[in-house]
Specification:
The protein is an alpha/beta fold and about 210 residues long. It is built from five helices and six strands; from the N terminus they run E-H-E-H-E-H-E-E-E-H-H. Bound molecules: inosinic acid (IMP).
């Protein structure tokens, strides 16, 4: 099936996570869409029953496209620690519990790494993954994956960003995502390579569905 271009107009960002909606709205800004979020439209939040980032992104985008009758963009993302077999992965939000306590979730990761004596940078590899799914009301879907590799650091550093940002230092940088303003975390413009997982997925999405 060929790729489909998205024509400017109304676009639903199929997320109820404020940090994420803000980031996606920032990334979409240059393209002139009228962005509405799933929570603005009062759409229900589907349960993330998939076993991969791709399945969960598609499930959210398709639910929003069906409910709104508009093209809908969803992101499923997470933090993967190699020495923990990729955990928390698709369970990244769930590790923070109902109170969204990421200080606790970051501590859990550190305790697990200590319990297996993962101390060197090589033993503390981590990555952020983001998969974007764009779904149209007629069922057409496009999927894009972005990843960024780095080191899991302790203690947490920085108060910017959200989630696991304070314990992730991307390769080639001496600041964590928590210490970077959003422009540096995403490092994205039309012509330069992106840094964050979400900006990398977004760059693929823009190249495939928005340009030309
Ligand atoms: P989702 O809403 O199911 O995609 O869960 C994503 C979860 O992964 C978030 O709640 C965060 O815990 C984590 N996560 C994803 N992207 C980022 C990021 O850019 N920085 C920090 N944490 C992230």
């Amino acid at each position: 099936m060929g790729h489909r271009k998205l024509t400017p107009g109304k676009l639903v960002v199929a997320s109820h996570n404020k940090g994420k909606v803000r980031e996606i709205v920032d990334l979409l800004r240059p393209f002139g869409f009228e962005v509405v979020s799933a929570s603005d439209l009062g759409l229900p939040e589907p349960e993330e029953t998939g076993l991969t980032f791709e399945e969960n992104a598609a499930l959210k985008a398709v639910a929003a496209a069906n409910a709104s009758g508009l093209p809908s963009l969803a992101d499923d993302s997470g933090f993967c620690v190699a020495a923990l077999n990729g955990d928390p992965g698709i369970y990244s939000a769930r590790w923070a519990g109902p109170d969204k306590d990421f200080a606790m979730a970051m501590r859990t990761i550190e305790e697990k790494l200590r319990s297996i004596k993962a101390e060197t940078p090589e033993q503390r590899r981590g990555s952020f993954v983001a998969v974007l799914c764009l779904a149209w009301p007629d069922g057409h879907q496009e999927l894009f994956r972005g990843e960024v590799e780095g080191e899991v650091v302790w203690p947490p550093r920085g108060t910017q960003g959200f989630g696991y940002d304070p314990i992730f230092q991307p390769d080639g940088h001496d600041r964590t995502f928590g210490e970077m303003p959003s422009e540096d975390k995403h490092g994205w413009s039309i012509d330069t390579p992106a840094l964050s997982h979400r900006a990398r997925a977004f760059q693929l999405f823009a190249k495939t569905c928005l340009e030309g």
